[in-house]
Each structure stands twice: as structure tokens, then as C-alpha cells.
Amino acid sequence: MNMPANAPITHIRSRTAVLAHENIDTDRIIPARFLTTTERAGLGRFAFNDWRYDANGKPDPSFALNQPAARGCEILVAGRNFGCGSSREHAPWALLDFGIKVVLSSEIADIFRNNALKNGLLAVVLDGPEHRYLLAHPGIELAIDVAQQTIELPDGGRFGFALDAFAKHCLLAGVDQLGFLIAHNDAIDTFERRRGEAA
Amino acid sequence: MAARTLLDKLWDAHVVKAATAATPGVLYVDLHLIHEVTSPQAFAELRARGLGVRCPERTLATLDHSTPTTPFDDLGQPVYASEEAAAQVAELEKNCAQFGIRLNGWNSDHRGIVHVIGPELGATQPGMTIVCGDSHTSTHGAFGALAFGIGTTEVGHVLATQCLLQNKPKSLAIEVSGDLPANCSAKDLVLHIIGQIGVNGGTGYVIEYRGAAIRALSMEERMTVCNMSIEAGARAGLIAPDQTTFDYLRDRPYAPQGEDWGRAVTQWSTLASDAGASFDRVVHIDATRVRPTVTYGTHPGMVVALDANVPAPTSLQERRALEYMRVEAGKPLAGTAVDVVFVGSCTNSRISDLRAAADVLRGRTLAARVRMLVVPGSLAIKHEAEREGLDQVFRAAGAEWREPGCSMCIAMNGDLAQPGQLVVSTSNRNFEGRQGPGARTVLASPAVAAASAVAGHLTDPQSLLQEQAA
Ligand code: SF4
User: Fold this and answer.
1) Residue B67 C-alpha to ligand 1 middle, in angstroms?
2) Mutual angle of helices B186-197 and B219-227, in 10-degree steps
3) Nearest to A89 among B153, B164, B317 (CB)
4) CA–CA separation, B394 vs B380, rounded Å?
5) What ipTM score was computed for the predicted complex, to two decimals?
6) What is the largest CA-CA distance in chain A?
7) Pairing between β-strand B31-35 and β-strand B59-62 as defined by DSSP bridges
8) pLDDT tens-digit profile of A5-48?
9) Tens-place pLDDT, residues A121-138
10) In degrees, to the nearest 5, what angle opens at C-alpha B275 toward C-alphas B269 and B281?
């Protein structure tokens, strides 16, 4: 039962890449025609496919993540309401495989955020001023401390972010959530029995 | 006991273990719907861990997303758009066989879009918790069930434990007063609502739709409304069950039968928010102000009444959206040339939707150049439509009458629009490229979609009559 959970995530230090667009939906993160896979690995090559490549399959140089400065960036700063739309978990899988480890936005859609955290992709909602600052300064290096829930700027300035206690615990300890659920088997049995009797 | 909302009641009845400050609650799932696209990796996880499916009898599978909507070939086999799609379906067939899960597969009379067949079979019932690896699971909330979309990791959780780790969402009451105008449908209403509260207006909430205008809707119309809750960011939409709900469910194959039926109805009748229950947020909508409504941008919150002027963009994104859509601010969308019309999807592929489209098309033909696909939500709907002769109406008008499935709603089965084409679609998402790379989507009701197919440009049935009389 002790299966590989996600690797623990404690600190991330990286430059940022910025996609300032609002409402980046999961169809944009990975178009539906790439969902016929039965695997979860290797989806990074389809990340932002129709944005990243032109109609002939050539990388579009105007797309932020194609620019040389974005190479190797692990932190994506995105406009409001990132990850809206379809529940496809292929979206965080594709981002992680692409090399993104953190998504920062002023608002992140519920299902996406849930899926992200289950895969060890840190999805953090920032307050307006901090979000606006990061949107306006692409490429700066951030140091994220998950335990302290802080983001440090290059000039030493630092601000905090909110993180659900359980999500934080899972990230720091690489907790396997299915294992955690299975540990409740007795309670689930009891629940089913109680309901069976009530019916 | 303090006054409770419908959400409170549904939640409380399914808590296996309450949340603490450090851990989320454990919530029991009554019905788990699965389909070929979001389940293979979950089954792989079960196998890797040597786990079984805890409650195969609470799990129901269908094929819908990547399946072809063209007829079978000469050998009676489906013709897939790709080998990968075929392999994905084969994988689900294998997984269901191995784990003892009912699959409404190619041989089933109940095959269809997951959110269409659940209600149609009576598997969807008031008071249940229902999940599926699909965001439009919100559809089932029309029955007073707490129904929401989950990711594939969570599909694995439910398969293995029949439970989910969940924190309770907040509650949003949308009070819809007044009568919906006769020329408006549930689709117009829900597009209007999303336009009012925004694509992120429901984030973190479960919406309960309330009020006279909601009570007046049929079950199929209620499903259309709840279906699009997710387009406002809400994971779930709810409508308290009433006589309309019970009448719909009675005698459906999976509904309680005999003496169980009466007991069920008594219990279901308790499923309403108590008088005085408080919601975290309340929004009021006046149904009398709704007009035939469509989207003009690239998310479902960019809506406009068909005859009103497209509003000026208020952000860079909105300006980009208008460019992508080739739509001009300050002008009405009515009159915009149309290339493709799609009637289908879990939003609007039920028999009443097909009737609405057929009523407009009867005795008319599509405008030259317009391609129209009509894709019933299930095989049962297809057969019913054929009994009523609707297929003849569609064919006579020049539309394609298809096999059931998601089809051009998600365009992953080969049904797709070409770059630049304008699609009037009864589906739920107008994201860039959703219906094919570069395709431009205008979301609309079945009646508006059909009228636009005849006119060759965006219009509603009333205006079509006037145009044709002129
Ligand atoms: S019809 Fe469209 S929205 Fe509905 S389940 Fe299928 S792909 Fe999803």
C-alpha cells in the first residue's frame, strides 16, 4: 500500500514566466484532441499546443513560453481565473511535464486547483497587489518556501500566501492521499452499515 | 435543529468523517459515472496498487467523448477517428469487464452522453452524491443531487474507497423571479445568468437555483441550467426536487419501484432549503428581462442578447476575444454569417431540444453553405426522435442526423469545424479552438441555432419569420 506518493515539495526557486491572459481554460492548457491517451506521462509536448505552435506546427515566437527568457522557468504567473472549464487532470499533468511546478494567479478554478495539488503542482492564489506586481515583472526570480508560506522577491521583499492546511501537509510530506483515504476504511464500512439499517 | 440549506442537507447525509482544521472531510459517493477519457489512468493506479473497485454496483460507465457519431461500417463496427480513440474505448471495456462495472457500451440501448443517460435511466436521483471525471456533472443537480466533476486522481479515489476528501463549498442562492418570456428557453436563461455573475462568479460555491421561474421549468430545462453552473465557476448547481422531478423519474429503469417508490418520494420531499436557511451569497435574477441570448466572445460569460449591440471591450483579453471572433463592438451579433450549426451536447441534446430545433426547421431548408449536425444525446433519444419523425425533418432540411455522443461539443472524435469557421452551437463552451483549432463558437439555444441554419446568419425564430415574410 505504501506506493510512491508525490515527491515532497518544500522550496522552489525559479524565474517566472508570465501569461497575463485572464480565464485561461484547460482546453487552452491542453486541447481535447490530445486526451485520447491512456497515459499520464509525456503530455508536456502538448501543453498550450494551439497557442505555442502555429498552424504549421512551428513554435510561435510571440508566445511567452516560447521566448528564450522563459526557458527553464518553473513558476507560471497567470491572469485571473486560471484553469477554468473542463476538469481534465491532463492539464496539470501537461504543465508538470512541461516543467512548471508552481502556478500563481489571483484566482484559480476549483477543480484545476484541486487536481494540481493532488499532483504536487503548487497552485497559489495571490492577493491583487502582489499578483499585479508579478504580472508586471516577468522573469524575476522568486524563492518560494512552502512551509513558511512565503514568496521572496529578488530585492529581499517577501509576502505570504494562503494554503489549505492539508494541501500543505501533502506537499511537504509527499503524502499519498489515496493511502490516507484507505486508512478510513472502517469508518466507511460503518457509514455504509448505518445507512443500510436506516433504509 | 437550525434551518439548513439543501446543500447542508445533502452534505450532512454523506459525511463519513467530518473535516478538521488539519484534514478535509471524507464524503461518501452514491453514484460514480465514468467514461473513456478520464478513467484509464485511474484504473492503472488501482492495478499498480493491487486495489479493487469498492462498489462496482455504484459505478456506471458509458462511451461518449471519443466515439464516432457516424454509422457503423459494413461489419457493424464503429469507425474511429484515430487508433488512439479506439484503444481508449477498448481500455474502458477491458476495465469494466475486469472490475465488474456496468458499461453502456456499443451493444447497449442506453449508450449516450454520460450526463444524458444518468437521468434518462433514473440512476440520477434526488438526495444522492454523484461524481464523474467531467465538469458537467453539475447537470445532475437538477434532481436535487449534489453532483460535481472531479479529476482522474479522484476517480481512482472513488473507485477504491467510494469516497472523496472534500471541504464543504459555500452556498450561492440564485433567485429567479418572474416568467421567462415565451420566445426564450432555459439556455437563454442560463447564458443570461452567467453573463450577470461572470465566468468566475460561482467559484468556491454550489449554486442553488430557486424561485418561480425555476419551478416552472421542465426537468430537461432544469438540466440545461444546472449543466452550465460550471461555466460560472461553480462546481455544482442544485434545484430542489418537486412533483416535476418525481413525474420525470417515475418508472425509469433504475428508479425505485413498487413500495420503494412511495418511500423514496416521501424522503425526497424533505430535500429543500428550510425557510430561513441562510446562504453565503444571494443573487436575484429577473426572468422577464431575458431575451434570446448568445455568446460573442471566447468564454461563456461574454454574452449578449441577439438583438443588442456587442459591448465595448473592457480589457485586453476582451479585445483579443473580439478579434478572434471577428466580432465588432457596438453592433448586434444578429446577421453574422454562419458556417456550421451544431445541435447536441449534454446541455441541449434531449428530446425537447431536438423538437425545438425541428419545429423551426420543419418545411424549411438550410441556407446554402451551412453545414448542420444534429447529434442526439443518447440512443434512446435518437430512437424517440425517429419515432416522432424528427430525423426526417432534419434530413429534409439538409442537416446531418448522427449517432449519439459528445461530438462537436469537444471535437475529439473527428467531428470538428475548420479554422475560421463560425459555429452556432447548443453546447456549453466557446473557448478558442474548443470545436476545432481556429474555430469560432457562438453558444445558443436549439431554436436560435436552427433559425440561424435556415437564415445562414445569426437570428432567432421570430426574426426568421419576419425575414421570410418580407
Ligand atoms: S457533451 Fe460536451 S460538455 Fe457534455 S460531457 Fe460531452 S464533451 Fe463534456
Assistant:
1) 12
2) 30
3) B153
4) 18
5) 0.93
6) 64
7) parallel
8) 678 999 999 999 999 999 999 999 999 999 999 999 999 999 99
9) 999 999 999 999 999 999
10) 110
